[in-house]
Structures are given as C-alpha cells and as structure tokens.
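Loading example: each entry is read as two labelled lines plus one structure line.
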Amino acid sequence: MKVELKKGATLKMPTHCLSLARGEGNQFYASCFDGGIYSVPDTRWKKPVRLAEHQNYASGVNWSPTTRHLVSAGYDGRLVWTNPDEKKITREVKAHDFWSWQSAISPDGTRIASSTGQYLCGGHKYEPAPEKEPSVKVFEVHTGKQTHAFEHVPPVESVAFSNNGKFLAAGNLMGEVRVWDLTTGTEAARIKTANFTGWGIIKGHYFTGGVFALAFSPDDSEIFLAGMGSTRDPAAGNGKQLWERWKWQGGKVEKTGSANDGEIGQGLMETLAFHPGGKIFAMAGRLFKGQWNTAIFDLETGSRLAQADTKMRVSKAIWNEEGSRLYLAGSSGQPKERKDLEKPDWGRVKVLEVEIS
Amino acid sequence: MSRKQQDCGNPEHGLHRRRFLEGMTAGAISSLSWSGLFSNPAFAETARKQQKRCILLWLCGGPSQFETWDPKPGTSTSGPFGSIPTSIPGIHFSELMPKCASIAHRTAVIRSMKTSAREHTQAINLLQRGHKPRPPFTRPTLGSVLSQQLGQLGSSIPNFILLDPCPEGNEFKGFKAGNWAGWLGAQYSPVRTGGEFRIPHVNKLDSITEGDHEAREELRSFFSKKFENDTRSEAASSHNAVYERVKGLMSCAHLFDLERLPRKDRDRYGPGTFGQHTLLARTLVEEGAPFVMVANGMPWDCHVFNHEIYQMVVPDLDNIIYQLHCDLEERGMLEDTLVVAMGEFGRTPWLNAARGRDHYPNAWSLTMFGSGIAEGAVVGATDKLGFDVTGQAYDEQNLFATIFAALGINPHTEFNIPTLPDFHYVEDNSEPIKEVLA
C-alpha cells in the first residue's frame, strides 16, 4: 500500500483547537481554548461561526447523528448539547468538579463519555493522589442522564468507545488503561504500560505524559494508545513519538506492537484516527525533534507509510467521510506581541489531502 | 503564641524594629534615608539580639505569576485556571491557591518584579546574589551573607542550610556545584542535604572512644591552624572551616532526620518532598538555624505541560506556605522569621506552541511574610494582559535591600574585606520596597 500526503487548506480558528468532530456532509466542528464551539469553514475565505460556549477551554466536541446535536465538553466540567442549525444550546449537564480532559461519543451517537481528574500530590515521589470523584462518566445523549460512573486514578486524559459501542476505555497519566463493559458496568480489562509516563529526574520530581489518545482497532480486538515516550526531563517534551497496540479481550492483556524506533522522532502525540477503510491509521501531535508531527501507519504491519510536518501542535485528527482528507486541529501557539494577543485568530485547522494506492 | 500576645507581654520586644519605627514620627521616617536608619547603633544591636531567621522557598525554574499571585481572569493570557478572591478586598489569587488566599492579609505580595536575566543560569545567579556578575569577583549569595550576619560563631547547627531533595536540576545543578559564598569564604557556604542526598559520615566510628576522637581532632586542629597561620593559606582556612562544620554536624545530625518529625505534622505539609523539607526547614530554624533554603530541583520550568504540572505544584505550594505561616505564628516565630517564596523570573503571558509558558523577567511576582514585612501589602501591578509592570517596577537590588531591611540589616553595609574593591550588601544605594516593610 502506498500513501501520499499533500498540503491542503489551512483554516483560521480563533484559538487553539483541542478537538474536532465531523457532522453531516463533511461539516466539521471545533472546540477551542476560548471556550467556543465553532463550525469550521470549508474555505479559508470564510470565518468560523460560534455555536456555543463553555466557561473555560472547550476540550471536546462530538456529533450525535441520532439527535443531530453536538455534545461538547470543557474545562468547566460541563457537557453542553447544541443544535448547530439553530445555534442554540439545548441542554447543559455538570459532569465533573474538574476539567473534562477528553470526551467521546459512541458510534451510534447515543452515549457520551467524559474523563476528568486533577493531578494532585499523593506521595513522596509526587504520585497522583486518589480521585475525589469518579474519573469517568457516561451519559445518555437523548436525555443527559448519567448511566455509568467509573473509578480510575486521576488525571484520566483519554477516553474511547469500542466500535460496537459495548466497551469504554480510559487512559491516565500513569499509563493505565481501564476497559469497562457498558452492558454489565464491570471492568473488562486493565492495561498497564510505563512507556508513556515520565518521572522527572532532571528538573523536578513529578510525573508527566500519560496516555493522551486511545482508539479501538476496527475489529475491536486491540486498543491503540498514543502519547509521548518516557523522558527524564518532564518539562522538555522530548520523549518518543509513540503508539502501542494491546490485545485486551479473553482475560489476557498483551502488547502486540508499537511504533518502530527508526520511524519516529520526539514529541507528544495527542491523537489517533483510524481511516474509514480500516487498514491505516493516523497519529499526530507535536514535533520536538525529527521530521514529522503527523504520520500514517499500516494497521497490519505497524510501518509508517507517510509523514508530514504541519508546523503546529495537533490536538485532534479526524478523517473526512470518504477518507481522502485528514483534518488536523491545533495551533502554533499564541502570538508573542501584545497587540496580536487579543486577536482571536491563532488557532488552525489544517487539511492534508491523502492519496492511497 | 499569637502576634498580639507577643506584643502585649514580652519585654524582649520592647526594642523591636517595629516599635522603633512606630516611635518615630511619619515625617521623621520620610526624611531619613535607609542608610541613616540603620546607622543607629541601637537599632542594629536590637536586630541582632532578636536572632532573626530566614527561610527561602526557592521556586527554581521560574513560577508563573498567572497561575499564582497575579492571575488575569477573562483575558487571552489567563490560561485555564480562574481566580478567587483573597482575604484582602479586591485582590485575587489563582484558584489554585485557596489557602494562601485565606491568609493574604497576613502576607505580602510583590507583583511588580522586573529583572533583566531571561536564562536560568544568569537569572539564578542574579536572584541568589542580588547583583549582576562583576568578574573576577564572586559575590556571595543571599544565604551566605545572611549566615554571616545572623549566624552565631561556633554554632553547632549550620548557619546556612540548603535542603534540596532533587539532586539534579539542569542549570540549577550547575549553580549548586558552584561558589555560593564568593568572597566571604567557604565557611559561609551551605550545608546541603535533602531527599536521598544525605549528609554522609557524620557519625563517630564505634571503634574509637569519645576521648580518642577529641584528642585526634585537637592534634589535627593544632597543626592545621598553625599551617594556616604560617602560610596565610585560604585553602587551609577553608579546610579548617569544613572541619569545624563537621564537628557541628556530628552533634546535630539528628535534626536533619525527617523520620523523627511527628506524623501529623508531616501529613499537614503533604507527602511531597518539597513540603516535607519545608517542615524540616521550620524545625531547623526553630533549633536556631539562621538561614534555610528549600529547593526542589527546577519544577517550575514548564515549557511544556504547563497546565498539567501547575495543577499539582501550585496547590502543593499553596498548602506549604499556609502550613508554614500557621506553624511560625503558633510558635511565636513569625515576628523574627522572614519567609520568602520566589523563583528567578516569571513566565510569558503567551502560551508557546507546546502550550507551555517560557521564561519572562519583565513582570513577575513573589510573596514574603514574617519578620519586618507589612501584613496584607500587595505591591505593584501589571497591565491587563500581564505584559509589563504598571507604575514602579522593582529589581533584584530592591528585593535584596528589602530582605536585608526586614531582617534588621543595613542593606548598604560595605563588605569589610581589605583585598576587595568597595562592595556593599546592596549596591547603588538601591532602596528597599518600602510598602512591603512593616
């Protein structure tokens, strides 16, 4: 298989985009630092339209086809339901006392999950303190009613539904992924990997990193994890650009592969996205050192098939419906000049044209 | 014992600096230079008698003013943390500091620090020594000067203690390996310990008796002192100073043992190493140590993961400062103990591409409380986005002058070392930040 990436449109957004969602007809929506939920323009000549807002960073936006609503989450700990056609908020639910780090919607659009948890000092080596509230919650999209509350060790940075909608996985700072059976409400598996977490030897004695992104393989037999490889300097961001894959079913948890050392550089990887065709996946984030911040990998072999450096920190990657474009949301940081700092146009959605042969 | 109780009943406080100031008319104060104030011999003697002490919580790496003492809620530079009201009407701290907010009226905050060094090595030196380098001379650090001024000759407990449980620390590691005491000499260098970096070899061997041990030391001391005097050797002088220090350490090694501290106290300060060593600092000043510096590597240098790390380290610091204030007050030590919490600079108003904040010396904050400090003082301000100081800015020299003044030391004292040019504790007649002083 051959994959080629070409630079496509660059769309200006008000502030850093933490998340993207694809609605009907390849309409994309973004959640931004300024708390706004925006419709992403389809050309650089248009401006994003603000649809809803959170009282703090908007960390996630999700499209529910069954209700034709957006369900967003934010650092205000709230879930917000928005009708994008009417630009109207229809429901708000207080989900957490702290941030919603990440949110995910079930493939059928009926359930929304959100993860939370503040990193607080819990030990001599600054191990995370136990949670003060359930770190992962699931709500019905139709009603806003909470259906599940799961325990984890905060902060829980990532959450994902299985493709069949029956399982939920959530990963934390310490590299622990818990998988729950949503039918029974019980824990189905627990993955532990030390490879995404750094403990500061050089600058400070605390933990950084963790599992920033999770995705089930198309057949749900494996869970893919992404983040940054362990580093001695927790504040440098110079760990490996890393993904790992784990088998998790049948009572046996086993690592089955990871990114090849020769194909990766250094930097935090924040997002994973499986291609609609199910044979390749994208991983993207920030480049610290190396050649790319976005790469396409072969699902079967794990080999890197294509790469690009989009010159920004990518927080979310998502394919268009046809799988011919990869949308990347993020920014290159705030402007450093005082006069520019208050201009809300430093977020970006960049599009890569993808040719697969 | 509360401040009020102390003021009412203790005759030792009859000549306290605060009383001295209160006894003067406002006009008299305003017409005096600070040098003039400190030239009063009664004042200086009084300050020395009071056994002033200082704890420096060294927030190495450069803490963000936005996530601590100078939040900018609702602006493009605020980051994701909000602000909360403090016990001073109209003054807000970061929401990560609820405990410090509750005692804001008992502490002082300076929001208008503006310094020149934007890299760690230069900035650490600047904020530890109080002045830019002037090669080939090495200016002593604040701790070295204070250990000389506040310490007791022959004290068994070291006059300058550095507690640093993180032995590494990039540029700070380099600084730690350098010359702390400068022209004052090795006897004013810190005794360094903390975490796994313990003081080695301070226990007398069981194989020799106490008498033998003392006899050997007397013999060593006799020859070594003779050599020092005969050759006027600075190296021998430093060597002898180290031996004197080791003798002291052997007698007080137990004071450095965290395990001996009550569990309930250790729990209050939190389980992290910074809190535990701040508690140790409190016990050491209680035992007579005049200057203790607590560091913990460079945890505040968050070019990446800024919010992810600050959500943990700031609440940790918040609790530590609060517990320390409560303890010093409860023990009646607040009047005589100055606590300063600061780093070498602040952080940028903007978030970089990694969503971190970079070094920023242009406008930053710190806090201090205790000896000689005006309670509830909030000095200076920054503009709407935190880009620059509005009004009067203060630099490292003003800060050092303030610290010296708060401890009853004339900031403009000349170092009395014949082989040196005219150096002063603080140069250029830089004045203390008067609003911070009680």
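Chain A is about 0% helix and 50% strand.
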